Each structure stands twice: as structure tokens, then as C-alpha cells.
Amino acid sequence: MTQFRALVAGLLLSFLSNAQTAAPPAVHDWVRGSAIRLASPVAGHGFDDMQPLKKVVGDARIVSLGEATHGSREFFQLKHRMVEFLTTQMGFTIFSIEANMPEAYKLNDFILNGTGDPAKLIKGTYFWTWDTQEVLDMVLWMREFNKSGKGRIEFTGFDMQTPTVAVDIVREWVAKNDPDYASTLVRPVGMARARTAQQPAFGTAIGSLPVDVARGKTIRFSGYIKTANVSNYAGFWWRSDGRDNKRLTFANLKEAAPKGTTEWYRYELELPVPEDAAAIYFGALLAGSGNAWFDDLQVEIDGKLYQTEAFDFTFEGPALKGLNTAVSGYPTRIDNEVAHGGRQSLRISHAASAPDSDVVDPRLAAAEWRKVVNLCPNLMPGPFRTRAWSCSACRCMATRSPATPAWQPT
User: Shortest CA distance to 393 belongs to which of 94, 112, 106?
Assistant: First the structure.
């Protein structure tokens, strides 16, 4: 369910972006009153304007440095300046990014010891978002800071998305220190490089209800659903969010959601809307493969029927009205061949992928690498740094693929 909500949240961001909804005056006032003005996003301009950040950071040991878009020049310039400030003024010692762990440690070797070409090492982290002049400038500054003797800063990665470097590290270490074990690595290495099974996805038609009509009230939503060969489930969902975009209330059909093949049936749910709600979203959803039809939807607010020209809940028009779709692979359209009450309905569909013999269950791959991890301390010892490096690479492989069941929303 957590992953489902996170995915829905991503769709909401896309929906809001397309809607271009203007922020209310209270939001503008809060930003003006709370923002810390900086003279420049570029590092090397001193820290007088950044002093208020000390109070914001306080005694925190971790500071998150986000970005509204990937690859934008100014965001990473400011990230560089924040690293400069946190390192020199507040004693932070590690910069960690969503990059492959072994590849990031190679870049860290340059930052600590000057080993390698920083531009090539950055390119070796694979993502274009890091392969920019702004990231290179930050890496070069980190190296110069370490050379100055004024402190220490490291560059680390906390992800494991590509097995290439980690596999090479393990194989090279085993070949040098315990050649007899090399043949045992063939199976886990092959599984690591194979494609893993994808988790079930979902498609949804999403809408937004004016919050002023329902704030402090209870919404009852009902509608008819028909399904054909649905592998997971179909259903409705509603949620209300606060001004900080955090979910306040959420409702779906839970165990009542239809799956498999079912005839038209009326479903309903209720959503209490708090007084401090700032937004209300809802949708029809198909999880997994199959076909789901939705028709004759109805909204009641505190027992009174809600009617508006903004939506066509009978789907009798030529196109969807008031609902948006944003998931590839899940065609969402008006169907004039299947309907409950009138001539048409809303249809969401997704074709199941054919079985692929080359696909590996990530749980099995992770289990094979855990065997290697467990044996790692018992293999012929090499230099401590090399041994620790190789064992870390083994652990990366063991955690690269989730050793948990595929997503099962409820």
C-alpha cells in the first residue's frame, strides 16, 4: 500500500503540473516570510548570507539536498554551495548521492587521494544528471578542500542499480585470493546480470474535487465496476491532502475490490474530509493486467448529491470530462460497446506480458549473493582494505534486487 500511495502521489504531481493551479495568497505570504534570501547560488561567495541556515540545520547529522528538476544548472550550483557551507562551517564530512556504491567509491578515491580522472569517474556513475560541469566543479572543490588540510569530505553512493563494477570487484578478488571459489560465482553473477521480473503496475483516471464544497464533511462515492481477467484488482480511491501535501485521509475498496472476471456491481466508499484539507483527489484504478469498466459514478457530500458540469460521471460524452490519465501501458478511454446504464463507460486495460525465460526472480538472485556474503569472511584473506572492499561489493549485490515479495496493494 505504501508503494501504491507513493505512485499515486507522483501522478498527483503530474496532474497538478498540467493543471497549472495557482498557489493561494497564503502560500505566497508564507514563502515571503519564511524564505532565506541568498546572494548567489554559486559557491565561493562567502557565507554571510547563509548564516541563518545554521539555526535551520541545528544539531542535525543529516541534511537532505533535493532538487525540483534533474540536471538544472542552478540547483546543482546551490547544492555545491550548500556542501561548501556545511563542510567548512558546520563540520559535515560526507556527501552521499543516489548513485551506484562501488562507482561512487572510485570517485571518492579521487577526492581523497587524487586517483583517476574525475570527469571520467563521474561519467562512470552512468546518469546524465551527474555528468555535468556543475557536479565536476563540486568534485574538484572537494578534492582541493581535502588537500588543504582544513578538514575532510567524502563522496559516497547509497544505491545499487547496475552490477557491472561490483561483480568485477568480487571476481577479481576471488581470482587472486581463492581461485577454487571462482566457479561458484558463475551462477550468482549470471543471475545478477539477468533481467529481473517487473512488479505489477497500475493505471488510473484521476480527478480533483473542489475542496471548499467538502471541507469538514463526509464524501460518499459510489459507482459500478465490471472486470475481465483482472490479475490484481480494480477499484476506486479517494484522498484528502493538507497544505503541506501530506495525506490526511485515504479510502479505497480494500478487500471488496473486484478481481478476475466479474459482472457489473455497485461499490461505494466514504472519505471524511478534515477542516484543514487543502486538496481532494480521486480516481478509478486497474492494478495488474486485464480490463476494467467503470460507469454511473456518483458523489454525495453529507448525504446530498453533488452535481457539477465539471465531470461526466456517466461517460456518455465523446471524451473524458474532468478526469486525466498519465500512465503509459494502460489505455484509458470511452468504451461504446460495454456500458451499465447508458451507451458508454470508462475502460482501463492492460495486456499481460508473455512469460520470459530470461527473467530472474530478484529474490532468488539476492539469496544466491547472500551465500557469497556469508562466505566472504572465510575466504583466503587479502589486504584488509581490498578484502573489505570486496565484501562490500558482495553486499551490494545481495541488496541490489529486493528480497521481498512483489508489490501487493491492499
Answer: 106
pLDDT tens, residue order, the chain (410 aa) = 433 433 444 444 444 444 445 667 888 888 888 889 999 999 999 999 999 999 999 999 999 998 888 778 899 999 999 999 999 999 999 999 888 888 898 999 999 999 999 999 998 887 778 888 999 999 999 999 999 999 999 999 888 777 878 888 888 877 887 788 778 878 887 777 776 555 447 889 999 999 999 999 999 999 999 999 999 999 999 999 998 778 899 999 999 999 999 999 999 999 999 999 999 999 999 998 999 999 999 999 999 999 999 999 999 999 999 998 867 788 899 999 999 999 999 999 987 655 555 667 777 777 877 777 776 655 544 444 444 545 555 555 555 543 333 333 33
Q: In the numeric block, which cell numbers belong to residue 395? A: 553486499
Radius of gyration from C-alpha coordinates of the chain: 27
In a domain, 300, yes or no: yes
DSSP string, 37-70: --S-SSSSS-SGGGTHHHHHHTT-S------SST
The domain of 192 spans 183-197+364-400
Contact between 376 and 167 under an 8 Å Cβ cutoff? The reply is: no
Query: Strands 332-335 and 345-350, how do they pair?
Result: antiparallel
Q: Which helix (H) or strand (E) holds 98?
A: strand 94-100
* 310 is a domain residue: yes
Structurally, the chain folds into a number of domains equal to 3
Residues 213, 318, single domain; the answer is: yes
